[in-house]
């Protein structure tokens, strides 16, 4: 039996991983959200239940159904089963997604969105779903109240990808609309 995961942030950018059989999918009844935790000053991109909503992303096979490496990459998140909420073209009996549990979330704090992370995520959505996919990412993500830390010149995000001027312009324009 193949185990799958649904990626809705940096995992949409194939340059950040080498998971096999990655393909587009849609997660129903969930939305993305930026959340604060006590774990770090950077906000986490997570998901929360949202009936009648949907988000795009990728599903990918977990090699040998061994979740250890993926769990390590997703430190700070809990794995939740979303099999029945994922629309995809594979016969998957188990699909999981990662989210920050409500117990780990904080309402306030001096947290920020790392621009190099956001650029990497947006680039993945652009490559998979076109410029409209980046627009949809911003529109289906909540919690844009955290300030953005501009680290484009010296990325802090360990899997940061080089982005083009056009990609940066789109991200900057969309950020101005949501903040």
How would you describe this protein?
This protein is α/β, with parallel strands linked by helices and 179 residues long. Helices cover 25% and strands 31% of the residues. The strands form two sheets. Strands 1, 2, 3, 4, 5, 6, 7 and 9 form an eight-stranded mixed β-sheet that branches. A hairpin with a 6-residue loop joins β2 (23-37) and β3. α2 packs across α3 and α3 packs parallel to α4. The longest helix has 15 residues, at 115-129.
The mean pLDDT is 91
Helix/sheet category: alpha/beta
Any guess at the CATH architecture?
Roll
Q: How would a textbook summarize the main sheet?
A: 8 strands, mixed
Oligomer: single chain
What is the beta-strand fraction? 25-35%
Label the overall shape: globular
Instruction: Give the count of structural domains.
Output: 1
Distance between the termini: 43 Å
**What name does the CATH topology carry?**
Hypothetical upf0131 protein ytfp
| Continuous helix count | 4
The beta-strand count equals 10
CATH class: Alpha Beta
> What do we call the CATH homologous superfamily?
Gamma-glutamyl cyclotransferase-like
Order of helical and strand elements:
EEEHEEEEEHHEEH
Helix content: 10-25%
Unreliable stretches: none
Q: If you compute it from the alpha carbons, what radius of gyration comes out, rounded to the nearest whole angstrom? A: 15 Å
